[in-house]
Design brief:
heterodimer; A: alpha+beta; Thrombin, subunit H; 7-stranded antiparallel beta sheet; 27% strand; elongated; B: 169 residues; mainly alpha; 8 helices; 0% strand; globular
Chain lengths: 286, 169
């Protein structure tokens, strides 16, 4: 502090000059229209450039928040989609109200963050930072903006365990958008985390590479229309009635960060009915 | 104290002459003489530099107030007085001047050439600052230089007239 005072005392004359000059220059820019317009024109330009630069820098720090906001917004938008509704009335979905839930909404979306993930195991699991205190329960599906992620198999108070699509026990029936059919079973063979196998598709179905697969409306866990992947390669032989199909997953599991847990409001009813259907394995399949 | 009052009255007089005569008389677009700088040239070398700087500020402010050019003469005056300190260090030797009985730069001190360069440099600084703020454009850089040099020459003529009228050496 003493050094600063000493410096000010030593530089008092130049400082006084700068002060008086600034006072004069302020008057010039304040009272002379021409100088005022030029100065503030440049100042505004610099100010805007600085703003742009600052926004560019700070936007990187806000990416996480922005991502979370987008997930919330996606949830809200999904709530407005037709396939999210319990049924379509003849006069339009929005006029229909379910007599039991008193709501049009069939699904609710709970954003969550992936805090643990693996893609290298035979049976991969994902841990989310949301649990039953946030409304997450067993058998809820998990999706992300790119596509399906998995199914909740356990939920603690604040965390949930999700069976990833990259799990040998995970199975799902896809919907062929181009063919308008739901057929076959998708499962992971434990090899490449970018690809899954699709079996039990009749070899008389006309498949093409690049066909898009979505979750079907037969799914008890996933909402219909969520991307699964695209057909990478399909083979058939005369010994079998079914194709051997390789599907490229739309979800990049190595980049998972923010996901959405889908809560089916009618899940209890479905669980009761589902219990009556014998499953061929103990896994979470639909 | 009397000397301070003399300078204040002299300053007011020069400010009035500047705004009533030199500002109104249009000699040429490239000559705008501002001989009031003479006030700074006859300031005693031993003057308190802080007081002179503040005085220059109010002197410039007075001319601006009279002439409606707020800030421009003030900036020029303040800068001139500030830079003059360093010019004085180069041109003048206080002890030598005291021995010769001089209180400010005079022709007799080192001859016409030194005197001319001294006055020209101080006037040029003043005029450059003034016209820089007046034109306030990079594209007018050469115009600023041209008008400044021409106006300095104009101011020099009027300063010599002041010198003769006031009997200063």
């Amino acid at each position: 502090m003493l050094v600063i005072f000493r410096w000010i005392r030593n530089q008092a004359y130049p400082l006084l000059y700068v002060l008086l000059l600034l006072s004069a220059v302020t008057q010039i820019f304040r009272y002379h229209f021409y100088q005022h317009s030029i100065y503030f024109g440049h100042a505004l330009g610099i100010h805007r450039s600085m703003d742009q630069w600052r926004a560019d820098v700070t936007s990187y720090f806000k990416l996480r928040t922005t991502n979370e906001q987008l997930v919330k917004e996606n949830g809200l938008l999904r709530n407005q989609l037709n396939w999210n509704l319990t049924s379509n009335s003849p006069k339009g979905a929005l006029t229909y109200t379910d007599t039991f839930t008193k709501s049009l909404i069939k699904y609710e979306y709970i954003p969550a963050r992936v805090i643990r993930n693996s893609v290298n195991e035979q049976n991969n699991f994902i841990v989310l930072d949301r649990g039953y205190k946030d409304g997450i329960k067993k058998h809820m599906s998990v999706i992300c903006p790119m596509g399906i992620v998995g199914v909740v198999v356990e939920s603690a108070a604040h965390y949930s365990l999700v069976m990833s699509v990259l799990n040998s026990k995970f199975e799902i029936t896809p919907y062929f958008y181009d063919l308008k059919i739901s057929q076959g079973v998708i499962s992971w063979n434990g090899e490449d985390p970018n690809f899954v196998e699709l079996e039990e598709v009749n070899r008389f179905v006309k498949l093409k590479n690049g066909m898009k697969l979505y979750t079907s409306n037969y799914s008890l866990l996933f909402p219909a229309g969520i991307p699964i992947g695209t057909i990478e390669k399909s083979e058939s032989n005369l010994k079998s009635n079914f194709y051997q199909i390789k599907v490229k997953l739309s979800t990049d599991f190595s980049q998972l960060d923010v996901v959405t847990v889908v809560k089916n409001i009618h899940q209890n009813e479905l669980d009761v009915l589902n219990a009556l259907i014998p499953t061929k394995s103990g896994g979470a399949n639909d | 104290m009397i000397e301070v009052i003399r300078f204040i009255i002299g300053g007011l007089f020069l400010a009035l002459i500047q705004t009533l005569i030199f500002k109104e008389v249009n000699i040429a677009w490239w000559i705008k003489p501002m001989p009031y700088v003479y006030l700074f040239l006859i300031l005693p070398l031993s003057s308190n530099k802080f007081a002179v700087l503040i005085g220059a500020f109010f002197f410039g402010l007075t001319i601006d107030a009279f002439g409606g050019s707020l800030g421009m003469h003030t900036a020029a005056c303040v800068t001139t007085v500030f830079v003059k300190n360093y010019i004085d260090l180069y041109f003048l030797d206080e002890n030598s001047m005291q021995l010769q009985g001089m209180r400010y730069m005079q022709i007799d001190y080192k001859g016409w050439q030194w005197y001319g360069v001294y006055i020209f440099s101080i006037l040029l600084i003043h005029h450059l600052v003034y016209f820089t703020f007046d034109y306030f454009s990079w594209t007018a850089l050469f115009t600023i230089l041209f008008v400044s040099v021409c106006s300095v020459l104009g101011s020099l003529i009027f300063i010599q007239i002041f010198r003769l009228l006031m009997g200063h050496k």
